[in-house]
Amino acid sequence: MRENGHGGDIYRFAQENGCRVDEVIDLSSNINFIKPELDIDFNSIDTAPYPDYSALQSDIAALYGVDVSNIELFNGATSAIYALYRLLGLKHTTLYAPLYLEYQKAAKAHGYAIDHIHRFEDLYAEVRPRSLVVFVNPSTPDGSCYLLKELMERWREKECTVLIDESFLDFAAAGSALSHLKSCRRLYVLKSMTKFYAAAGIRIGALISSAENIEEIHRREPLWKLSRFDSLYLQSALRDSTFAQRSQSANEAHREYLVRMLEAHPAIEKVFPSCANFVMVKLRQMSAAAFQSKLTPYRIMVRDCSNFEFLDERYLRIAVKDMQALLRLKEALCEISI
């Protein structure tokens, strides 16, 4: 498994296994299988003018109950991560792991010393004062939701800068760290628009913080970071008033079906509770790579989690997808030898 490898590389999978991309059942990528209904004809878009983000910023501000002055847009959440590490210019970061691999990569790229806290075993471990603390909630790759009140108090006492990554919070019935914005002036909340709005190819992410923090970021960022297509796609998706309810309902039902399927399988030792659109499992004996090899003839991809901090080769993640994909997985699990 590559150190910084991610799920969703369907093109490589298809090429290596001699199949078409449309034959691949991608259970490795945690993109919503429910798509918003769009009300725009992209063939009619005038691409001559420079993009203007005021309408999009207003829509996102309304969605999350903040002011436009609290938002800085980025070409995807990953771009926001790299930008924040660069702009803060701190010397140390504390990563609550396992977590999205790009955090460690971004920290190394910008010369940060790194501490890892094993959130499964030592959630309340001491953090270094004035560190950049990163916490993903709901977490990846397991999908756990955490109550952050006590942790926030500890981080404030240590004068830490805090980044809470809420890329998957739209899937969960849980509270946002945005409620701490007024009491924690060093707090940044990261929102990804690609996961919930089923658009990994539409690169939109947002950092939300105090107006002062956002002004400092905005002053040091490029003027244009999103295309007109990106902006208009998300504005149209946000106008689908029933999308959020449909997505949350369908993902919850399909996740429960997936969990029951996995819990019944003899190769799986543990299915981790999740409130996101994916489930992490621990295998009894075989490795995730061996498990994947048994699914490959069925053109099914899962996410080997062996390159996450604190996880070994027996951990893998399976995304919640449409029922046709889950039934194909069930068929494969019934047929493969363990």
Automatic annotation (TrEMBL):
Swiss-Prot/TrEMBL keywords = Aminotransferase, Pyridoxal phosphate, Transferase
Q: Does the keyword Transferase apply?
A: yes
Aminotransferase class I/classII large domain residues: 43-329
Tell me the superkingdom of the source: Bacteria
Q: Name one GO molecular function term.
A: pyridoxal phosphate binding
Q: Which InterPro entries is this protein grouped with?
A: Aminotransferase_I/II_large, NHTrfase_class1_PyrdxlP-BS, PyrdxlP-dep_Trfase, PyrdxlP-dep_Trfase_major, PyrdxlP-dep_Trfase_small
Supply the CDD domains for this chain.
AAT_like
SUPFAM superfamilies membership: PLP-dependent transferases (SSF53383)
Q: What is its EC number?
A: 2.6.1.-
Q: Does the keyword Transferase apply?
A: yes
Cofactors demanded by this protein: pyridoxal 5'-phosphate
Q: PANTHER family this protein is in?
A: HISTIDINOL-PHOSPHATE AMINOTRANSFERASE-RELATED (PTHR42885), THREONINE-PHOSPHATE DECARBOXYLASE (PTHR42885:SF1)
Would you tell me the protein name for this molecule?
A: Aminotransferase
> Which species does the entry assign this protein to?
Sulfurovum indicum
